[in-house]
Amino acid sequence: MPNRTLLIAGNWKMNNDVAEAVKLADELAQALPEVPAGVEVLVCPPTIDITTVHDRIQAAPIALGAQNVYWEAKGAFTGESSCDMLKSAGCTYCIIGHSERRDYFHETDEDQNKKAKALVAAGLVPVFCCGESLEVREAGTYVEHVVNQVKAGLAGLEITCPKQVVVAYEPIWAIGTGKTATAEDAQEVCGAIRETLKEMFGEELADGIRVLYGGSAKPGNIAELVAKPDVDGALVGGASLKAADFASMVVKAGE
Ligand code: PGA
User: Fold this and answer.
1) Residue 2's pLDDT band (cuts 50, 70, 90)
2) Distance 90 CA to ligand 1 centre (A)
3) DSSP 3-state assignment of 77?
4) CA-based radius of gyration for the chain
5) Residues with catalytic annotation?
6) Could you point out which of 4, 26, 29, 185 has its C-alpha 20 to 30 Å from the C-alpha of 60?
C-alpha cells in the first residue's frame, strides 16, 4: 500500500462572519504552527471569508479551499465564483458535490463532473463528495449508489498525478447528526471507492488518491478512522469550527 499523506479538511459550511473567521483562523494558525509528518491540513471557509482567512493563515502550514465553484470562466452568472477567482484568492482546493448542495440546491452528478473538470484544468484540487441517504443505506444498495456517484462525477477527468483529486465519502445519515459511521462502515465504502478509482484511472493513480471519510468525525474517532487502509483522512464539519478540536484531530491523525 502506498504511503498516502493524510488530509484533515475543515468544512466551515455557512458559519463565521469576517470577524469570526479572523478569530478562528488566528486560533488555528496558533494551534498548528506545524503539522505532523504525513498529515496535510485544509480549511474551507465560506466564500466571503476566503481572502481574509488566506491573509491570516499564510504563514501556517494550512491549505485553503472553497466550498463551491462554477465551471464557466466569467460572465453573467450572478452569485457564482470561477476557478481562477478562487485561485487568485489563495485557494488550492474546492469542495464539490456536498450532499447539502445536491439536496438544497439541486445540483446533479453532471454539475459535479463539469466542476471537477474545470477545477483540474485550472490546477485546483476538487474534494469530490459522495454518500448515501439513510433510505439508501437501509435498502442495502449504498455501495452501488456511491460507486455510481463517483463514476458519474469523475468521468473523463484528466489527471496525471494522484494529488489532483480527493474523494470524500460522507454518508448523509452521519452528517451533523453525531451518528458516525463505524470505522468498518467507512472502510467498506472507501475501499469500494478505491476499486472504482482503479477502474477509472488505473491502479497506480488510484493507489495514491486520497479517499476521506466525513460525517461527525471528531477528536474521539479520528484515530480509528484513519487506521483503516482506505481511509486517508476526514472532511470535518462541526468539529472544524473549534480550533482546539480541529487541531487535536490533526495531531491524533498523525500519531
Ligand atoms: P459534520 O459534517 O462533521 O458536522 O458531520 C461533515 C460534512 O458535512 O462535511
Assistant:
1) low
2) 23
3) coil
4) 17
5) 98, 170
6) 4
Sort residue 231 into left (φ over 0), alpha (ψ -120 to 50) or beta. Answer: beta
- Secondary structure (3-state) at 37: coil
Measured CA angle at 5 (ends 95, 162), to 5 deg? 65
Spatial separation of the C-alpha atoms in residues 177 and 170, rounded to whole Å: 12
* 217 Cβ below 6 A of ligand 1: yes
| 3-class state of residue 236 by DSSP | strand
- Per-residue pLDDT of 7-54, as tens digits, reads 999 999 999 999 999 999 999 999 999 999 999 999 999 999 999 999
Ligand 1 pocket member 103 (CB < 6 A): no
- Tell me the three cell numbers of residue 22: 479572523
- Atom nearest to 100 CA in ligand 1: 8
* Whole-angstrom distance, CA of residue 62 vs CA of residue 69: 20
> Residue whose CA is closest, atom 9 of ligand 1?
237
Distance of CA 170 to the CA centre of its chain: 9
Q: What integer pLDDT is reported at residue 223 of this predicted model?
A: 97
- Amino acid code (one letter) for 94: C
The Cα–Cα gap between 196 and 179 comes to 26
Decide if 150 contacts 128 (C-beta within 8 A): yes
Tell me whether strands 166-169 and 93-96 are parallel, antiparallel or unpaired: unpaired
Instruction: Taking residues 189-218, report their average pLDDT.
Output: 97
Protein residue with its CA nearest to atom 2 in ligand 1: 237
Q: How far is the CA of 110 from the centre of ligand 1 (A)?
A: 23
Query: Contact 61/8 with Cβ under 8 angstroms?
Result: no
CB within 8 Å of 195: residues ≥ 6 apart: none
